[in-house]
What we know:
single chain; alpha/beta; Rossmann fold; six-stranded mixed sheet; globular; disordered C terminus; binds adenosine-5'-triphosphate; P-loop_NTPase
Amino acid sequence: MSLGLHDVRVTLDGRTILSDIDLVLERGRFVGLVGPNGAGKTTLLRVLAALVTPARGRVTLEGRALSDLHRDERARRIAALFQGAGIGWPMRVREIVTLGRLPHRRAFTGFSDADAVAVARAMERTDVAHLADRSEPTLSSGERMRALLARALAVEAEWLLVDEPVTALDPAHQLDAMSLLRAASRDGTGVVAVLHDLALAARFCDRIVVLSGGRLVADGPPEEALTDSLLARVFGVTAERGRAADGTRYILPWARSRATEETNDGVIIPG
Length: 271
Ligand SMILES: Nc1ncnc2c1ncn2[C@@H]1O[C@H](COP(=O)(O)OP(=O)(O)OP(=O)(O)O)[C@@H](O)[C@H]1O
C-alpha cells in the first residue's frame, strides 16, 4: 500500500533539482508537500507520477518499480493533476470529467454505468454539476480547477497527486476541496497535495513533508514538522498558533521572521 522514493536524485538540464530523497507514502493518509518557491515540489510530484525519471534511485509502487508498470495500469492506479494542465480544445465540463474514466475503458467498449456513476459522483463532490454543459474556456480559474479536480477524482485511482489544488479557489471552495481530499484519503486513497497555504495544510493534512533546495528537511504530523525554527529557517516567517473554537489547533503564518526580515528599503537584515 505504498508509493516510495528511494535515494532519488533528479537532474534537469544539467541542474540537480532533487537530491537524497527517501520518502515512503502510505495510502489512507493526506500528505501535504510544502516548501518555498523553487524547492522542487512539483518535480517531486512528477517523479511520483512517473513523468520525470530520476537520474539516480528508485521509485516503487507496492514494492515494484513504477517504470515496470504498463502506462495504462499506472494511469488507473495513479491520478495526477498538475498546474497549467491543458484541455487543448473547448470541451464541456462533463466531457472533461469523463476523460478521467479513459484508463478504465477497454478497447471497442463504450462507457459503462460504473463510469457514469464515477463521473456524476466526482462532479457532485467538486461542486461542478451545475457547470456540466459549460465549455471550458468560459470557466473562471476556480471553476476550471474544480472541473480538473473532478476529472482526477473520476479516475478513482489508489493514488491522487495534486499540484496546488486550492490556489485559485475562494475560501469556501478551498475548505471544500481540502475536506474532499481528506475524505478521499479516509476512503483509502493515498493523497499527496502540493500546497502553499500552510494554515490549510496544517489543518487538514495528516502528514507534512517539507522540501527546501531540493532536499527533504522535515516530515511528520503538522505540529511536529512545522516548528517555529523550521518556519523561520525554510520559509522566513513567524507563525501565530492557537486553538479554534472547535478545539482544532491552527498555525497561521504571520510575519517575516527576523532572519530574513525586509526593511522599508527592501534590504535583508541577517538574523
Ligand atoms: N525542465 C527544467 N529544466 C531546468 N530546471 C527546471 C526544470 N523544471 C523545473 N526546474 C527548476 O527546478 C526547480 C524546482 O522547480 P519546481 O517546479 O519543482 O519547484 P516548486 O517547489 O514546485 O516551485 P513553486 O512553488 O514555485 O511552484 C526550480 O528552480 C525550477 O526552475
